[in-house]
Amino acid sequence: SGTGTGLAVQLDRYVDIGAMLSSAVQDRLRNAPKQVAIDWSALVNVAFGPVAAGDADEAQARKEKAVALDRVVASRISVLIGPAGTGKTTIIKFLLSRVDIVGRRVRLLAPTGKARVRLGAETGQTGNVQTVAQFLLKDRYDADTGRYFTNTQAPKLEATTCIVDESSMLTEDMLAAIVD
Question: Residue 164: in which H helix or E strand, if any?
Fold first, then answer.
């Protein structure tokens, strides 16, 4: 009859990954970020110069960048989304310029080599960006099979800030390996 039997199959590793990611998110949310009082609007305006008279679109774009910076800094976990050309990389550049906020152990990751090169060029961090595979190669990525995995026995690579470009391309396994 094609109505199904109610049978479902679930891989145990994805149950474990879900629990690990949930725990990691909850841990981060329990630790409130430092309160930072920065006039992001002023910094954005200094970086871009005066807004041309009557350019309401530019004024609105700058306001949105300042709000985005304020929200990213006020959060333990952030997702910055928007179409191409809306200033996501500009926001990351502003953020990276503030070592007092991001710390000294910043990890810049991208899922592909092309995204890695672009992120490095656009942020001025060409030597500091890795692909996810490069970052995880020793203990959480098998180059022969292309498999990402968690490894509780492997050393932890601490980061004060981790930025993953093009994060919508990540699989659950990739995200779990990064968080692990």
Answer: strand 161-164
- Residue 176, C-beta contacts closer than 8 angstroms, at least 6 positions apart: 17, 20, 21, 148, 150
**pTM for this prediction:** 0.83
Quick one: what percent of the chain has pLDDT higher than 70?
95
Half-sphere exposure of 30 (CA within 13 A, CB side): 6
CA dihedral 116, 120, 126, 130 (to 10 degrees): -30
Count CB-CB contacts under 10 A for residue 155. Answer: 8
88-96 helix and 56-73 helix, angle to the nearest 10 degrees = 50
* Each residue's pLDDT tens digit, 110-135: 999 999 999 999 999 988 999 999 99
Cα(122)–Cα(171) distance, integer angstroms? 25
Q: Which pair of tokens denotes residue 123? A: 């942020």
Tens digits of residue pLDDT in 23-75: 998 988 887 766 778 899 998 888 888 888 899 999 999 899 999 999 898 88
Start-to-end CA distance of the chain, whole Å, equals: 45
